[in-house]
Amino acid sequence: MNIGIFTDTYFPQVSGVATSIKTLRDQLEQNGHSVYIFTSTDPKVDKDVYERNIFRFPSVPFVSFTDRRIAVRGMFHALQIAKDLHLDIIHTQTEFSMGLMGKFIAHTLKIPVIHTYHTMYEDYLHYIANGKLLRPRQVKTMTRGYLRGVEGVVAPSERVLTTLTAYGVKTPIRVIPTGVNLPQYEQVKANHLREQFGFSATTPVLLSLSRLAFEKNIHEIIMALPDVLAEQPTAQLLIVGDGPAREDLEEQVKTMKLADHVTFTGEVANDEVYQYYQMANVFVSASDSESQGLTYIEAIAAHTPIVVMSSPYADDLLTVPAVGQTFHQQDELVHAVCDYLANRVDLSDRSVRQRILYEISADAFGKRIIQFYADAQLIYQEDSEKSAKLSD
After folding, report:
1. For the whole model, what pTM was predicted?
2. How many angstroms separate the first and last alpha carbons of the chain?
3. 348-359 pLDDT tens trace
């Protein structure tokens, strides 16, 4: 198949969506399909640099998310490219500019379109005019409107499925978790990183890895650190990533006099991320806005125990302490982290971890998406034939 992926976000932007699309592209190509990325321009990408099968369209920073972008023109140029490529199916990854462009082109070319619903927008309404401009009811209406006219929807988790069902979405929805390249996360331990940051082999290391956005609630991890240090005085918190909340978080660390125990690394290249999971003793997250939690499954793939904020997704994922635990309150976070740092949790039960790893493997992800494409093409063909008979 010739597959067009339409997305507002792609590398070098750092996000779970960009990682998901890269994984999908790799798997589709490994299975013999041709994949073409239609995305926005990026200041970090020289327009004269060749990018294989990637087409970028003029864009501007998105309102309230200035490190994210939306395309502002290029609809008919993209249509001509899609025609020349003889696309068989379009897979949109955003409900905004490139997603709307993808839907238009699919309908024009009379080919099916699949959409992945990545973002739980109700968790982000406070970014737009302090939550006064958009309400949950409007998110529901906009979501239903966008998903009308697509052949299928990929939900990365049961939480997304539940939300879309509650919105009244009638389009077929299939839960397909984003996959992880498991062999990459199972490589040799990255001990050199400990040396780089001045940690010894026995230093207890807590890892926070995400975009440094306010909804990730990284400030709660920092707030809990003094209580962790009371039991583990040499513990270190490594905060990997960058984003709009970084300055506030650095100021919080300074105010709490924790500079000797907190390190900010900035952005890390995607192909180096696995090393950070491997060098840590425990992965921590207080985010309550995850539609899937790609960093959670990346940590699990690296065999690093995780302690994360309770949510329907996390609670379903973490059923045994050997894999990880969820928390509601700060004292529960501290207790769980200290249990892992002090080796009070038996990590030898591998059965649940292996089941999770199978479910989240990139190979399984690719095969499920390819099957969904085939099903969508069949549905589209049948609907087209019905419409043709009715018109006769």
Report:
1. 0.85
2. 31
3. 888 888 888 888
